[in-house]
Design goal:
- The complex is a heterooctamer.
- Chain B is mostly helical.
- Chain B is 76% helix and 0% strand.
- Chain B has a single domain (5-89), classed as Helix Hairpins, CATH 1.10.287.3510.
- In chain B, helix 1 runs antiparallel to helix 2 and helix 2 runs antiparallel to helix 3.
- The mean pLDDT of chain B is 80.
- Chain G has 494 residues and is an all-alpha fold.
- Chain G starts with 6 loop residues before the first helix and ends in a 10-residue tail after the last helix.
- The chains are: A alpha/beta (193), B mainly alpha (101), C mainly alpha (170), D mainly alpha (110), E alpha+beta (377), F alpha+beta (165), G mainly alpha (494), H mainly alpha (432).
């Protein structure tokens, strides 16, 4: 498990178009069921998606932001993932991108109960963010997975990623008069650290 | 009885006068209702006073009827006022202008 | 002549009756109205009719005044304070009141009831109940019909028919 | 009794007012309770509960209930036939009450 | 921010009849949050939960501390359930660092986790009682909870913030004689919570008050992504301890409690049933636990993770608790994200409260098994 | 179950509990008994020894002034500062020892875990409150004192309930 | 002692039962039932009641008029007469509402309230006790407050109801005050004993007695629409739903006259010198102001309201001369019956016009005669009858009224002036009635005929037959009136 | 320097005490003594031993303690004593205070707690006094836009109304403050005041939560008044009187609860609702509307409202006792004493022991009082018990309960009473 893990690490920084597909090269060792899930997506979307890793119970798909909506719809309708466990945003200042990771799970399909499908997408990052009014935008998945509603609000306020089509893009946790940078960006420094 | 009938009747007349004044001057529906209540009370007072001095039980009976009827009347009247308030957002009779006159 | 209790009661009653009509705030007006009603109940007690007095308090103060108070509270706050009204009309009203009071008062003082007192015992309240059920029993039935009709009508009036379309602008 | 109680209890308030601290320093302290927020809107608004009907009903049925006492306290002295009007009275009131309870029970119309 | 408001959640246009109430943050019935409630008479027409009053930026803080020193502050969001909230983090770090945990440590973790679940649930139940105006139901769980707190104190040395789980096992071995004391107190505890039935769960007034209020249908529960007792009360049999067993849960004998109704009553009953199940698990684990052995793998002083990301989840008192850790070969994690059950269940609140009576607000709100501090993180 | 029986059952349960034993701990008079002397850590095996995580106790003769406890605390509470001490130990040439601010300490015990020389233990003394902030800062000399705590109360479970005694 | 089969009790039993049960039926039907169901029940109840009254008349169970009893109610011919008039009005209202209430909510409550109000109106005429009269009076009034405001969406209905309520409450308060004084003076509330009490009144109490008469006149005058107390009337008649206006104009108003005849004319006959003049002056003022104001109106309902005020004046003539001429009070009662039918028919016609064409403005009535022929015919005939055009029944009653006035001239020097004023006013009223007819028949281009509501047609036909037939052959009804009218002797003087 | 209060100085403490003492003495001398004289002058003192008791004589007990007993006896027959002390305010307030203490202790026992423990050494018996002093010394905060006159007056009037209610309760034969002929109606009249006070105080605070609470309180009290009134009709039918003393006296053989259990149950439930006690404490439902109509009250205003509430509780419990449990009727607790013991006390050797109360009251009265208090405490216990056992119910459930079930049951009770009467079981000429 550990050796497999090391090789299947696909750090997001290295993910350039010319990069290899590590999941495809090591498919012999991969868990079959999870591989099947990844394959279904690849078969449907082909080059638009990249399978980042396939581990026991975890499959990660990287999609660019134009296709994330369609992929998510496919995942819900065809693969029976019905809710989002978590939505997390990760800031990559060196790539000038912000990654948004959806962890999707399923309640209805008993065979998928252990599975978490990780759907990652990236939005461009602005140096001087004006949350909501700059280029850091992504399509919202709320119409597909209803449960992302509050998570996307949180990502919006914590990282400044505006979700197009989200009906309620308001602050959630931060105070109403918060005027600083979105706090989970790497350039928002904690005082004294 | 240490009091005389005339005292009660005079108080009752004073209340009647106040009620008439209120009805003729005020244009707020609830205040007009107050005035009506005051007149009814004046009448009740009269009634019970006469009944006491006759003495006869009819006065008290009529007072009871009149109080009960006033309750029914107020229930209806306040419903009307609430309907009016819902419609006009106002309870001032002088501001109701849908009927001329 | 009247005694102190009577005088106090009449001052309370008449004063609060005037206050009920003249106080700027409708809430205070309602409270003053309660004062009037309570004062009348006090008169009833003076007149040895405790049943009517208690009925008056229980029904008038206990329920009618509550209903009035509640309705006043339903009305918007700025409307609780009345508009300044026509001065001429007010004076005319006061004039009418004075004429009425003086006229009626003189009529009454002129008449023969000026010095009626009684030493007979008061009517027992049980006689009222007996009256209700023997002599006045059709009136009692009609009373029930009145109450039935009024509660039916009041509920039908006060309920909302169609929530969406209710707020109709003038 | 009422008067005595008022006379006895009003000093408590006055004494309390006299000996208690009074600091006007913080205006927030005198704001109405709004769970730590600055109050929004009016405290006394046009606020109608869905149960207004019960108050209307109370006004009418309170009268009924106390009318019954005029009968109940004299029933021992009256002939049995005197109960008949009360039965009619109650019958009518029951019918009215049935209708009123039906109307007031429908919460969505109030 | 934006003016566009969603159809389902938007606060309606305020008209004459509607009063806006701030329930919270300083309100006996809100916890550390604010619920903006708009009421029409006695009925709630719209509700907007406003958490964030105890937001402490745990996720941001975690980016500045190494894998070990993250432990004490990551357990702060739910101090009553501090073992459970550390659990996925610890599991994730173990996977990142590639550590295999000793068998005895796994059992100790399970016991501590179940004890913590009961402690949390008792606290939750106490507040549920006081929200319903049942002061006895506040006092009894708050008192009986002491039994388990004492156990946890014996085990870890602290009453609430145990900081007991570390990557590679637990901090210390069980004290001597712990098994006997634990068994005795857990048995008594189980007897106590069974007595709650007469006064609380079978109380006709309580049933009348909470039954058929705030009904969350099975479809909605799945669609809204609710979790934990909320999900199980709506008829979805999904318990991570069964579905994705971590540590030694697959070797233990227990069952999950699923109710069909999806109303407040069912949501309040599932945690109670779960507590009895927890007692069973604890007894079972005490039986099967290796009597001796190592409980902690010795770590390097400042361990560094690989270039990887893991997502681990456990079943906490409030449902699935996921931890997403991104590591970038530094001693500090690059990003830690806690996906907590409270936050996921909060989304159901506006749906459940819409059209409810104001009197149902506390019961429905608290039956969501919501812990404001955890949701804020 | 009918409503009436339910109500009677609830009332009965309530009345029954009036007579049940209560295990309220009358705190200043009674104190709960804990395991051992306090939390300790054995660096050789890497496993702690169970005990209450109360106030620390510093063994001056073991402390080397290595600052590991202070570093461990850095990410947690920043409660430990290294201060000069007058008396010099053989192994502690720098003469610095931890001074703990209990206004900040969260009693996680990571400093104890970090100490490789058995110098820092935790004791079962938890009554640390003071009227001033300064009173909460424990110098190395104060930390060296072993507290005397009487803790004798234990939960007893009987048929009529649980009591402390 | 009241017999259980006496007319008022039977009417209470029938109408009260139906009136109370109707809302219950509506609960049982979840308030989804149609209007017609309840209307038919109410109609049947009213028909049964009127049948019972007629049966009592036919079988001569009815006591002679104005016989006062020891009880609160008396089953006499006077009451029976009014009962028939009121029940006819109630039937008109019910039938007229059949169409009007089609789309409205709560038909059951509507009809139930009509029935309750009818009980009140009938019982006012039957009661021989002031308390009973007051209670019946309130039973008559309170449902009509609700009914006037029944169209909750309609602001004018609500405004009408509110004004009506306030003045109605005032009138009842004043009546209670009057009752209290007369009770205090005579020591009883039974009218029979009141009469005795007044006839043996100490002269020093006379001012108070007059005060009570004045209060009674004011109190009843509010309902009757006499002139100083008429200000609410046009507004209410215009704003209230038209069938309810029928009930108000033709029903409660006449109940006011019944009460006035019972209390003022009969009860206080001992004081007649003092109130006849007052009534005479009020009569002239009422008819004059009513008719003059009616000319200026643009709205049909409002015009009819003022005309109704005018007619109250005519009726009051008979009351004013009642102690001196038996023809006066007979004329009054005759006119009351006639006016109930005429005005009822006119308002029902207006209601039909409102529901079908949604107009009440006079200018928009052009060509109505061709659009709604039967309704217009009925309206025209009733208007002509109201004006007192000879072959119709209105003529005879007015003739009796004016005749009574002339008849009383031997005792009252000013009585002929009443007759003169009445004739002049009738001529005046013919002017505006004629104007309406001209609008309806001689103006406007030909338009298509619209379908008229069947219920309105039924009322129209019935009332046309009534008016024309009794106009041509008035004998039976005059006999009936003579039988029903109380005899107050010319000889009774204080 | 003390550890407990660092700023504390003993000299200042003594100085402040002396200051207070001085002012107290001065004010008492200037105002208090004349006030006492005036009160004594207006209170009509009866004749003792053939001489009229004057204010001067009334004050002689200061000089001659042996005169105390006759003066006390004389004073006890005055109206002021009745109002202020025995059947009236003092007695009721004492019982109310006891109720508060019992409630706290009992609830604590039920909830496996200890309750008040330290204040007063013995099971926290002085806790109440401490709380009272605390409330007295707390700052009274009035919201900025409150309607001040109503807001100030409401607590006082609340206590006054509760006291007026207490005045109607007969404690022992002849011991009642206001012996009204229509006492039961007077009770209804007094009860009718509470909703008004509540809604007015709620309205005057100009805050949302009190307003909602006040409206709820209004609905609740109003809805339960009708079942309350109707449930007592059965008793009135069977006794034919409205006088509370007569009703109590009529139960010398058996209490009415034997024959009218339905009415008693209905009345008990309505008591709970009228008192706003759990499970019907909706007006103060803290988890929904903070503290309901009491939200804005602070300091002694809150204390007064609490006092009024518990006075009301006592009054309702006593009413229940009077109407359904036979009032003061009960078997003699101890055998009748010989006359000399009553007047002179027990001579035990050299010491003479007076039995407290005996010289002042007759033995029947004492017996009645004891029974009355026992019964009242029992009823109070059952009023307090639901607080520990039931959760709060919802306002719509409450209204349905009141309007559907309780009114129905009250009518059933009336018909039971009628049936008993007409079947000849009870009433004049009945079997019992």
């Amino acid at each position: 498990m550990m050796s497999e893990e090391k090789e299947s690490i696909e750090t997001t920084e290295k993910q350039t178009p010319a990069d290899k597909k590590p999941a495809a090269t090591k498919e012999v060792d991969l868990p079959a069921f999870e591989k099947g899930i990844a394959d279904k997506i690849v078969a449907k979307f082909g080059e638009k998606t990249k399978v980042a890793f396939v581990k026991p119970d975890r499959v990660r798909i990287n999609v660019d932001k134009e296709n994330v909506h369609a992929v998510a719809e496919f995942i819900r309708d065809e693969l029976n993932f019905d809710h989002a466990e978590s939505v997390s945003g990760v800031d990559y200042p060196q790539d000038k991108e912000i990654e948004v990771v959806y962890h999707l799970g399923s309640y209805t399909d008993a065979s998928l109960a252990r599975q978490v499908l990780v759907l990652a997408t990236r939005a461009p990052r602005e140096e001087n963010p004006i949350p909501g009014n700059d280029g850091t935008k992504l399509p919202s998945l709320r119409d597909i997975f209803y449960s992302v509603e509050f998570f996307e609000r949180e990502v919006f306020e914590m990282l400044g990623v505006y979700f197009n089509g989200h009906p309620d893009n308001r602050r959630l946790l931060l105070p109403e008069d918060w005027a600083d940078l979105p706090p989970l960006r790497k350039d928002f420094a904690i005082k004294g650290r | 009885m240490s009091n005389e009938l005339i005292d009660f009747v005079l108080v009752s007349v004073a209340l009647l006068g106040i009620g008439i004044y209120g009805l003729s001057v005020k244009r707020n529906a609830i205040r007009m209702l107050f005035a009506v209540e005051i007149i009814i009370n004046a009448a009740n007072l009269n009634m019970v006073a006469f009944g006491r001095f006759l003495p006869h039980s009819g006065g008290q009976t009529l007072a009871l009827f009149s109080i009960a009827i006033a309750a029914a009347e107020v229930a209806v009247g306040l419903s009307l006022i609430i309907v009016a308030y819902r419609m006009y957002q106002n309870i001032d009779i002088a501001d109701f202008r849908s009927l001329k006159g | 002549m009247a005694d102190a209790v009577f005088l106090a009661l009449s001052v309370i009653t008449i004063g609060s009756a005037i206050a009920a009509l003249e106080l700027r705030s409708l809430i205070y007006g309602s409270i003053a109205l309660m004062g009037t009603l309570g004062g009348i109940a006090g008169f009833f007690l003076l007149l040895d009719s405790p049943f009517v007095a208690m009925f008056q308090i229980a029904v008038y103060v206990g329920s009618i005044a509550v209903l009035i108070l509640f309705t006043v509270m339903l009305v918007k706050r700025e409307l609780i304070f009345k508009k300044i009204e026509d001065k001429r009309r007010k004076f005319a009203g006061i004039g009418l009141m004075l004429v009425l009071m003086v006229g009626l008062g003189s009529v009454i003082l002129d008449s023969g009831i000026k010095s009626i007192t009684t030493d007979e015992p008061a009517v027992d309240f049980r006689d009222i109940g007996a009256d209700f059920l023997t002599y006045y029993w059709p009136a009692l039935i009609l009373m029930a019909l009145i109450l039935a009709g009024s509660v039916t009508g009041a509920l039908v009036l006060a309920r909302r028919e169609d929530v969406g379309n209710e707020q109709r602008a003038n | 009794m009422f008067g005595f109680a008022v006379a006895a209890m009003a000093p408590a308030l006055i004494i309390s007012r006299m000996i208690s601290p009074r600091k006007k320093s913080n205006p927030v302290k005198f704001l109405p309770m709004e769970c730590g927020q600055v109050p929004s809107g009016e405290g006394r608004t046009h606020f109608m509960m869905q149960y207004y009907a019960y108050i209307l009903m109370f006004v009418v049925f309170d009268v009924m209930a106390i009318f019954l006492y005029a009968w109940g306290s004299t029933i021992l002295e009256l002939p049995k036939s005197a109960t008949l009007p009360i039965i009619g009275f109650l019958g009518i009131m029951f019918a009215a009450m049935a209708f009123a309870l039906y109307q007031s029970g429908r919460r969505n119309i109030w | 921010m934006t003016t566009e408001l969603p159809p389902g959640l938007a606060l309606q246009k305020v008209d004459e009849r509607i009063m806006t109430l701030n329930v919270g943050p300083q309100h006996p019935g809100s916890g550390h949050m604010r619920i903006i409630v708009q009421i029409d008479g006695d009925y709630i027409v719209a509700c907007d939960p406003d958490p964030g009053y105890v937001h402490r930026g745990e996720e941001k803080m975690a980016e500045y501390r190494n894998y070990i020193t993250n432990i004490p502050h990551l357990e702060r969001p739910v101090i009553h359930d501090s073992c459970n909230i550390l659990y996925p983090y610890v599991l994730g770090v173990e996977e990142l660092l590639g550590i295999e945990v000793p068998e005895r440590a796994k059992y100790i973790r399970v016991i501590a986790s179940e004890l913590n679940r009961c402690i949390y649930t008792m606290y939750w139940l106490a507040i549920y009682g006081i929200f319903l105006g049942h002061s006895t139901m506040f006092m009894w769980p708050a008192g009986d909870r002491e039994l388990l707190i004492d156990l946890m104190e014996k085990m870890s040395g602290a009453r609430v913030t145990h900081a007991h789980f570390v990557p590679g096992g637990v901090r210390n071995d069980l004290p001597p004689n712990f098994e006997d004391v634990c068994l005795r107190q857990v048995n008594y505890f189980e007897k106590r919570i069974k007595e709650y039935a007469a006064i609380f769960y079978d109380n006709p007034i309580l049933i009348a008050r909470t039954e058929k209020t705030g009904i969350l249908s099975r479809q909605d529960a799945i669609r809204l992504g609710t979790t934990g007792s909320v999900l199980r009360a709506s008829g979805v049999d999904y318990d991570l301890r069964k579905k994705e067993p971590y540590d030694v849960y697959d070797e233990l004998d227990f069952q999950t409690n699923v109710l069909k109704e999806g109303d407040s009553y069912a949501r309040s009953k599932v945690p109670w049933l779960d507590m009895m199940e927890s007692c069973r698990i604890i007894r079972n684990a005490l039986e099967k636990m290796p009597k001796s052995g190592s409980v902690r793998v010795k770590l390097k002083p400042n361990p560094k993770g690989g270039d990887d990301s893991v997502y681990k989840r456990v079943e906490s008192g409030r449902g699935s608790l996921g931890c997403y850790i991104v590591s970038d070969k530094k001693p500090e994690p690059y990003r830690v994200k806690l996906s907590v059950g409270s936050f996921r269940n909060l989304i159901a609140l506006p749906y459940l409260l819409k059209g409810e009576k104001l009197g149902n607000m506390p019961s429905v709100y608290w039956s969501l098994n919501y812990w404001p501090v955890e949701a804020d993180r | 179950m009918g409503t009436a029986t339910g109500i009677i059952k609830a009332l009965n349960s309530g009345i029954k509990h009036i007579a049940i034993k209560r295990f309220t701990l009358r705190y200043p008079e009674e104190k709960l008994k804990f395991v051992g002397d306090g939390y300790q850590f054995d660096p050789s095996t890497g496993v702690g020894i169970a005990g209450l995580k109360g106030r620390h106790m510093l063994f001056h003769d073991h402390c080397t002034g290595c600052q590991l406890c202070s570093i461990a605390c850095e990410g947690v509470a920043e409660a430990i500062a290294m201060v000069k001490v007058p008396d010099q130990q053989t192994q502690n040439k720098k003469s610095i020892m931890p001074q703990i601010d209990y206004g900040k300490c969260v009693f996680c015990g990571l400093c104890v875990d970090a100490c490789p020389f058995y110098a820092l233990y935790m004791t079962n003394d938890y009554e640390l409150s003071s009227f001033s902030k300064e009173g909460l800062i424990y110098t190395p000399a104060q930390l060296a004192v072993k507290p005397y705590v009487t803790q004798d109360s234990e939960i007893k479970i009987t048929d009529r309930g649980a009591t402390h005694g | 002692m009241l017999e259980i089969s006496s007319t008022p009790l039977v009417i209470i039993a029938i109408l009260g039962t139906i009136g109370v049960i109707l809302p219950i039926i509506s609960i049982a039907r979840k308030e989804t039932g149609s209007n017609s169901f309840y209307a038919v029940i109410a109609f049947a109840a009213l028909i049964v009641s009127i049948g019972y009254v007629a049966y009592q008349f036919v079988t001569e169970h009815v006591l002679p008029s104005a016989l006062f009893s020891e009880d609160v109610l008396v089953d006499d011919a006077f009451g029976g007469f009014f009962a028939i008039a009121m029940l006819i009005v109630a039937i008109f209202t019910t039938v007229g509402s059949f169409n009007y209430m089609r789309k409205q909510n709560h038909p059951a409550v509507y009809y139930s309230l009509i029935l309750l109000s009818t009980i009140g109106m009938v019982l006012v005429a039957y009661s021989t006790d002031l308390v009973m009269l007051f209670v019946a009076w309130e039973l008559m009034s309170i449902p009509t407050y609700v009914l006037a405001g029944f169209m909750k969406r309609n602001p004018s209905s609500n405004e009408a109801a509110l004004k009506y309520f306030l003045f109605g409450a005032l009138s009842s308060a004043i009546i209670v005050y009057g009752i209290s004084i007369s009770y205090g003076l005579t020591g009883s509330t039974n009218i029979g004993e009141v009469i005795q009490g007044y006839s043996t009144l100490d002269p020093s109490f006379l001012p108070l007695a007059l005060l009570s008469v004045g209060l009674f006149i004011a109190g009843f005058g509010f309902k009757m629409g006499l002139v100083p107390f008429h200000m609410w009337l046009p507004d209410t008649y215009e704003g209230a739903p038209t069938p309810i206006t029928t009930l108000l104009a033709a029903g409660t108003k006449k109940a006011g006259f019944a009460a006035a005849i019972r209390i003022i004319i009969l009860g206080m006959v001992a004081l007649n010198l003092d109130w006849t003049l007052a009534l005479g002056i009020i009569a002239v003022m009422t008819m004059t102001i009513g008719n003059i104001a009616a000319i200026m109106q643009k709205n049909l309902a409002r015009m009819l309201a003022y005309s109704s005020i005018g007619h109250a004046g005519y009726i009051l003539i008979g009351l004013a001369v009642a102690p001196f001429s038996s023809m006066g009070i007979q004329g009054s009662m005759y006119h009351i019956l006639n006016h109930a039918v005429m005005k009822g028919a006119a308002f029902i016609a207006v209601g039909g016009i409102v529901t079908t064409l949604a107009v009440t403005n006079l200018d928009k009535l052009k060509g109505l005669g061709r659009r709604m022929p039967i309704t217009s015919l009925g309206l025209v005939i009733s208007l002509l009858a109201l004006a007192g055009v000879p072959p119709l029944n209105g003529f005879w009653s007015k003739l009796m009224l004016f005749g009574g006035a002339l008849d009383a001239s031997s005792s009252l020097s000013w009585a002929p002036w009443l007759a003169i004023a009445g004739v002049l006013n009738s001529a005046l009223s013919l002017a505006y009635y004629g104007w309406i007819m001209r609008k309806m028949y001689f103006e406007g281009e030909t338009e298509k005929r619209v379908s008229e509501p069947k219920s309105v047609i039924a009322v129209m036909i019935f009332s046309m037959i009534f008016m024309v037939a009794l106009g041509v052959y008035p004998d039976p009804i005059i006999k009936f009136v003579e039988m029903a009218s109380p005899t107050i002797g010319l000889g009774i003087t204080p | 320097m003390s550890v407990i209060a660092p700023k504390f100085k003993f000299s200042e403490f003594v100085k402040s005490i002396l200051d207070n003492l001085f002012w107290f003495l001065l004010i008492f001398a200037l105002i208090g003594v004349p006030l006492v004289q005036i009160i004594l002058f207006y209170v009509e003192m009866p004749v003792i031993n053939g001489e009229l008791l004057t204010p001067f004589l009334a004050l002689t007990w200061l000089a001659d303690p042996s005169r105390t007993l006759p003066i006390l006896k004389a004073f006890m027959t005055t109206d002021l004593f009745r109002i202020a002390a025995f059947p009236g305010f003092g007695f009721a307030a004492l019982l109310a205070a006891g109720t508060i203490f019992v409630e706290r202790k009992m609830l604590a026992k039920l909830q496996l707690r200890v309750g008040p423990f330290y204040c007063g050494k013995i099971e926290g018996i002085l806790q109440l006094m401490g709380d009272g002093l605390k409330l007295l010394s707390k700052e009274i905060i009035i919201p900025a836009k409150a309607d001040k006159p109503i807001f100030w007056a409401a607590p006082v009037i609340f206590v006054g109304a509760a006291a007026a209610f207490v005045a109607l309760i007969p404690v022992a034969p002849g011991w009642v403050v206001a012996d009204v002929d229509v006492g039961l109606l007077a009770v209804f009249a007094v009860i009718g005041f509470f909703p008004i006070i509540t809604i007015l105080s709620a309205w005057s605070a100009n805050s949302k939560f009190p307003f909602i609470g006040g409206i709820r309180a209004l609905h609740q009290m109003v809805s339960f008044e009708i079942p309350l009134i109707l449930s007592l009709l059965g008793v009135v039918i069977l006794t034919g009187t409205l006088n509370l003393s007569e009703i109590a006296a009529s139960q010398s053989a058996f209490p009415w609860i034997v024959f009218l259990p339905v009415g008693a149950i209905v009345f008990f439930i309505t008591i709970l609702a009228e008192l706003e006690r759990i499970p019907f404490d909706l007006p103060e439902a803290e988890s929904e509307i903070v503290a309901g109509w009491l939200t804005e009250f602070s300091g002694m205003m809150y204390g007064l409202v609490q006092l009024g509430t518990y006075l009301k509780l006592y009054a309702f419990a006593a009413l229940f006792v009077v109407l359904f449990l036979g009032g003061w009727n009960g078997p003699m607790i101890w055998p009748p004493f010989p006359e000399e013991i009553i007047t002179k006390g027990i001579e035990a050797g050299p010491i003479t022991v007076q039995i407290p109360g005996l010289p002042l009251f007759s033995q029947e009265t004492l017996n009645g009082i004891v029974w009355f208090v026992i019964k009242t405490v029992g009823v109070i216990f059952f009023i307090l018990l639901p607080r520990g056992v039931f959760p709060r119910i919802r306002i719509d459930m409450l209204l349905s309960l009141g309007w559907y079930k309780l009114i129905g049951m009250a009518f059933i009770n009336i018909f039971i009473a009628l049936g008993l009467l007409y079947a000849g079981v009870l009433g004049p000429g009945g079997m019992l």
